[in-house]
Amino acid sequence: MAVKKSELYSSLWASCDALRGGMDASQYKDYILTLLFVKYVSDKFTGEDYADIEIPEGGSFDDMVKLIGKKNIGEGINKVIAKLAEANNLRGVIDKVSFNDPDKLGKGEEMVKKLSKLIEIFRRPELDFSKNRAEGDDLIGDAYEYLMRKFATESGKSKGQFYTPAEVSRILAKVIGISNETRPEATIYDPACGSGSLLIRALNEAPIALSGYGQEKDTTTAGLAKMNAVLHDWATATIVSGNTFSDPQFFEDGSDETVLRRFDYIVANPPFSIKNWTDGLKEYGRFDGYGERPPEKNGDYAWLMHILKSLKRTGKAAVILPHGVLFRGNAEGEIRKTLIRTGFIKGIIGLPANLFYGTGIPACIIIIDKEDADERTGIFMIDASRDFVKDGNKNRLRERDIYKIVTTFNEQITTDPHYARFVPMSEITRKNDYNLNISRYIDSGITEDLQSIEAHLKGGIPAYDVDSLDRYWAIFPQLKHKLFSILRDGFYQLNVVKDDIRSIIHDDEEFSAYADKLDNAFMQWRESVDGELRNINAYLEAKELIVRLSERILTQFEGVELIDKYDVYQVLLAYWLEVMSDDVYVVIHDGYEAGRDLSYEYVVKTRKDGDETIIEVTDKVKSWDGKLIPKTIMTNAYFSEESKAIDAAEVIIADTQAQIDEMLESAEDGSTIAELMDDKGKVPAKALKAAIDDIRSKIQSEELSVLSVLLGALPMKKKELDAYLVKHPLCLSAKNDKGNVNASSIKARIAELRATTPVPEVYAEDYERLMSLQSLMIKNDEQSKLVKALKAALEEKLKEKYTALNVEEIKELLVNKKWYYSIYDGIDALYVAISHNITDRIVELAERYEDTLPALSTLVEDYEAKVKSHLERMGFAW
User: Which 8-state DSSP code applies to residue 287?
Assistant: First the structure.
């Protein structure tokens, strides 16, 4: 059965718990990622001829499993990795960390337990990569990326620089010009490749296999990059370690290492503003021809000039650099002038601040294109600095932001001058003296919300505020007339009561018709993709599917005013990444029949073993759900009546519990109920019953008296009992069904009498409250048991129905009830947001100007006069 990415990710991240405590994320990432690499290549390539990776005898994950519990486990793991490295020329790549380091992994038994636990985690069924791979799915590579992103997040500012966020990597990969016309012999290079994600993204953009090259200063990180490349099926990529400035590793063939190699494409996210870039520098002509050298204490332009030197005469590059390179002066300013004159810069994309793990400063992407540089007449600029979402303490680009940037740049779209412009070279050179600061060329379009003094003095709402909503009035012209009328020149008055604004907008016919327009666009999209989604098979490329789905939804919503088509795109892509892609990969691998499969969560127990906490997964089921189709969807489709019965019982429980809570909260200190409460503010049922019985024990009557005496005298002979009954006829009321009087029947009669006989007046009020509370608690308990029984019965029915589903039913539930419903729900939220936006703005304007300054002044004067009058009556004068 195919594993979902979400399940794989959670298992991998859980494995990190085994190493936390002894080291930080910047260190334990090396252990986790190395084990992931060994496990993956062992599962994928063991026994295969002509595989990318050879699995030698004694060099597989199975050999690590044999070491579990052994005293020499750390040393043994190192030997296994060494054999794998030796067989694949990966010495110094995958064997950089030692699994026999007591300072990081503990000594003796501690190390044995820690490493044994780690290997056991990687033995889990969901980490069997020989079975969990759909064709075309970067499941393992993506898992590797997921871990590196998590590690970067935990490592903090100084240690997270090895990782370029995937969202940014995708932009660079898509704007450097790789296309279907790219030659098979083309090369891609990253001179500061870190963990390799950016280089791999660029390689993946090509429709054919290209040659990838990367250099990374840190040897351990270079090892991560090589492993990352293998896990993404780029085992042929050349990853080397060394300082790019003092020890470049790539040279032209036959140049005796005197001429730097030139590449067709370059992507890079080099460390910002490094101060020691000249240490041991070897120039290779990298800085010739620019009039100045990069400043010694800032390497930003040194990276850019190295990239230019390493590009072929028709080469293309995309590099991330801090915004300072766009406007800083002195030597950098002179280099920038020369660079602009060459025409090499094709575009500049301004990114939001706080995207990267190593720094919070804003950065930009500079796109270089040497081809036809002498004919270039300007630079295409994009200001994407405002498009992001908060993600913890970082900012993150959404799918909509990525798509908008890429399509805007690649198609040179200039319909929104506040977002993108083609800036003529004359404007850059003559008007702005070669300053490339994006804010000089692109106005954000954000206007200040000005207050009108006249409106505050005379009343009314300024016309420019009302007319600024013209994008709404163009769609809802009658709505504007319902809400506003002209008060005087330049000012409107509100025609309705402020509190009615929301209902008037919501009930407006034009506004309702707009909702129908959204519905129609969604329905047309659904019709255009329905055939594909109901006929997924093993030959489908999931990544191509989502491209088609997203392009069609953009087309359908292109002409829908007010709704930003990129927001609709975000709805679809967010759902794809969170849920739908997992579902599609499962269907590709296992077919629609996987809709019958169930997924179980088991109870986890923890126990202490010395100072170590042992986590054990039991075989007891904690919860379950459908692997593809959630129980909620199944319930709504087939068992709505059962669900309603459960809901009704739960309503009773909630109402009863509310009454109980009110009784407890209102109980006065010293009252009987208050004295029965435990530390949690609850009244235990046993304590409540005991209190009621205590009051009932104080009930007195002649019949109770004689019955109690008789009960105390038992056992007695039959003649004696008969004589007592003759003498005390009231006791005959205690006869049972057979006409006999015995201890049991007497106790039953006493209980009956105490339940029906009024309690003494002094206890009556307490007794009534206690009985009411008990009645509510019994009712709550009965309904809770009913709900439990109903849910258990429903669970059994659901399980039976899952197994009985046919393929057509599964398609209907999965595609229509799950996928379409969720996507539509997200789009509908955009419509609701439109209603809120226009309503909130009108209410804001109404409240801002509803009281004029003279009216407020008069009100203040009235209050002052009243206060003064009160003070004078109190004898105060001034």
Answer: T
What is residue 134's predicted lDDT score, i.e. its pLDDT? 38
Report the alpha-carbon distance of residue 587 to residue 421 in Å, rounded.
44
Structure tokens at 105: 């992994």
**Residues in CB range of 820: below 8 A, 6 or more apart:** 526
Pick from 251, 273, 119: nearest CA to 189: 251
Map out the domains of the chain as residue ranges.
1-155, 157-446
Which residues lie closer than 8 Å to 692 by C-beta, 6 or more apart? 767, 770, 771, 774
- The answer to whether the beta carbons of residues 375 and 422 sit under 8 Å apart is no
Helix H or strand E segment including 418 = none
With vertex at residue 244, the alpha carbon angle to CA 242 and CA 247, rounded to the nearest 5 degrees, is 60
For the chain, first and last CA: distance in Å? 89
In SS3 terms, 82-136 reads as HHHHHHCCCCCCCCCCCCCCHHHHCCCHHHHHHHHHHHHHHCCHHHCCCCCCCCC
Residue 460 CA to residue 488 CA, distance in Å, equals 8
Architecture of domain 157-446 in this structure: 3-Layer(aba) Sandwich (3.40)
Q: What is the spatial distance between Cα 604 and Cα 614, in angstroms, rounded to a whole number?
A: 10
Tell me which architecture the domain covering 1-155 has in CATH: Up-down Bundle (1.20)
Which of the residue ranges 12-16, 173-177, 333-337, 765-769 would you say has the lowest mean pLDDT? 12-16
On the question of a cis peptide bond just before residue 322, with omega within 30 degrees of 0, the verdict is: no
Quote the tokens at residue 254: 């036959």
What does the alpha-carbon distance between residue 358 and residue 454 come to, in Å, rounded to a whole number? Answer: 51
CA distances (Å), origin 765, targets 97, 769, 871: 76, 6, 50
By DSSP bridging, strand 345-350 and strand 394-396 are: unpaired
Greatest alpha-carbon span in the chain = 131
Can you tell me the distance from the alpha carbon of 133 to that of 151, in angstroms, rounded to the nearest whole number? Answer: 24
pLDDT tens-digit profile of 287-343? 998 889 999 999 999 999 999 999 999 999 999 999 999 999 999 999 999 999 999
pLDDT score of 144: 63
Q: Which residue has the tokens 């007195």?
A: 700
| Whole-angstrom distance, CA of residue 546 vs CA of residue 569 | 11
The amino acid at residue 623 is S
Q: How many other C-beta atoms can be found within 10 angstroms of the C-beta atom of residue 393? A: 8
- What is the C-alpha to C-alpha distance for residues 365 and 372, in angstroms, rounded to an integer? 20
